[in-house]
Specification:
Elements: H1 4-19, E1 22-26, H2 32-42, E2 45-48, H3 55-65, E3 68-72, H4 78-93, E4 98-101, H5 109-119, E5 125-129, H6 130-137, H7 156-166, E6 169-173, E7 176-180, E8 185-189, H8 201-215, H9 219-240, H10 244-257, H11 260-266, E9 269-271
Parallel strand pairs: 1-2, 1-3, 3-4, 4-5, 5-6
Antiparallel strand pairs: 6-7, 7-8, 8-9
């Protein structure tokens, strides 16, 4: 595309690799591996740490070196819930940017309660699929467990509502991805349908958003940019993959090998 937004996306990729931000992750059992590897591949430094006893230490480290926190509720139990609330509270207190991935919001009362409590600490970015974002907004999105049955287009109004109500950035991912702060909205085209057949690709993206907001001054455009970069890596992976198993491998390879010039030419981010 080679326009202002693609230039910013290319610059973001270079900055992540230059600054190697520490991303402190409350991931879930399913996504820990791919999330950590995706962060390493793109040039960030992942820390998968869930203990309440070390939350203050990691929060202070992230504050000191401009890191970020990501919280994923996918496999929470009461102890993890307690630990994540402590981490979110400290991130809010110490001005550490953080990402909330409300996996399966709307599927159970326990998940809904987790999201409700975590939202009190104002995540910098809320990233979810259409059904999850609609559930957070109070609209029934009809999710099937942790899978979405609502499109990103259907959830855009809900995303804007949540963004305005909490004064945060909301990213709703789907066939077209949208990133909004309730005033400015970016639409991102990219990715490949096969990515939906690899578990935790969305969770890994939430962690990559953590890397983006750790180094990017414009959090809104940085979020849109990393989603575009991830989608481009997925598109390139799908061209050579024979199925979901090899797609995962090629996705990580492309995150590591993607050049700023490729992002500059192929990022597809539009202000809508």
């Amino acid at each position: 595309m080679n326009n202002k937004t693609s230039i910013k996306a290319a610059e973001l990729l270079e900055n992540i690799r230059k600054k190697v931000p520490l991303i402190w992750n409350f991931s879930n059992f399913v996504s820990m591996d791919i999330a950590a590897n995706a962060l390493l591949a793109i040039g960030a430094s992942p820390a998968m740490a869930h203990a309440k006893e070390e939350a203050n230490d990691f929060s202070q480290i992230c504050k000191a070196i401009n890191g970020a926190l990501t919280i994923n509720i996918g496999t929470f139990d009461p102890y993890w819930q307690e630990c994540a609330l402590e981490a979110a509270s400290l991130a809010n207190k110490n001005s550490v940017p953080w990402v909330l991935d409300p996996v399966g919001a709307g599927a159970s009362g326990f998940r809904n309660k987790n999201v409700e409590e975590l939202m009190k600490f104002k995540p910098t970015v809320l990233r979810g699929n259409g059904s999850e974002i609609m559930a957070v907004s109070g609209i029934s999105g009809g999710g099937k467990g942790v899978d979405s049955t609502s499109s990103s287009n259907e959830a855009l109004d809900a995303a804007n509502s949540v963004a305005n109500n909490y004064n945060i950035i909301v990213a709703v991912t789907g066939e077209t991805d949208y990133v909004t702060d309730g005033k400015t909205t970016y639409a991102i085209s990219g990715g490949h349908e096969m990515m939906t057949k690899v578990t935790a690709t969305g969770c890994a993206l939430s962690c990559l958003i953590g890397a983006a907001i750790a180094v990017g001054e414009n959090k809104l455009l940085s979020t849109a940019s990393i989603i575009s970069i991830y989608g481009l890596a997925g598109e390139m992976a799908a061209k050579v993959a024979k199925g979901p198993g090899s797609l995962r491998m090629h996705l990580l390879d492309n995150l590591a090998n993607l050049s700023a010039s490729q992002v500059l030419e192929n990022a597809n981010i539009k202000n809508v």
